[in-house]
Amino acid sequence: MADKPALPFSLDMDRLLLDVNSQFNPLRPEFLLDFHVSGARDGFVYVSFALPEGMTRLFVSFLESMAGFFRLVDIKARSASAVVKAHDPARREKVEATHAEFRQEVCEIFDGLRGQGLDVKEAVKRTNSTLKARNHPWATFEVVQKVLRSTGRFRRQKGGY
To answer: Has residue 112 got a pLDDT over 90?
Structure first.
């Protein structure tokens, strides 16, 4: 069994937070904050603090900075999760397959409408309408147009007018 790397200093969190001589210990007689905890429903509790008048602004600043800190942590966590998902080969393969299926479906509908003699603009509109009727989440005119352009469906055929 491999040894854990040694910390640069020893840290006993319980001792730090609950030591009678610690400033963090609410049981200490000199503790500056008067607080009360009462039960609420569904496993929640109400915590109320009685602050010295001069600490109000400092306490509010502390709460604001903690809110900002947790927002930042949430953003970083989401970002890290997205990076992990983006580098997952199975997930990437599934996403690429879904995009390929959508491109194929758009092209099949468009080609069928063009085969019926509709002009390009009307065929694009009806392709989008067909996808919307199927409640496809990517059914927008811009997305359909982009797919058709990327697959070369808007290029003029050589030799035929």
So the answer is: yes
**How far from chain centre, in Å, is Cα 58?**
32
**Which residue is listed with tokens 């811009």?**
142
Helices (H), the chain: 13-18, 56-86, 89-115, 120-133, 141-150
Helix (H, G, I), strand (E, B) or coil at 34: strand
Any idea which residue has 């009727």 for tokens?
133
Task: Identify the sign of the CA torsion 23, 26, 30, 34.
Answer: positive
In tens, the pLDDT along 62-79 reads 889 999 999 999 999 999
Largest CA distance in the chain: 95
Handedness of CA 121, 123, 128, 132 (dihedral sign): positive
Percent of the chain with pLDDT over 70: 76
pTM of the predicted model over 0.85: no
Q: Which two tokens stand for residue 154?
A: 């808007």
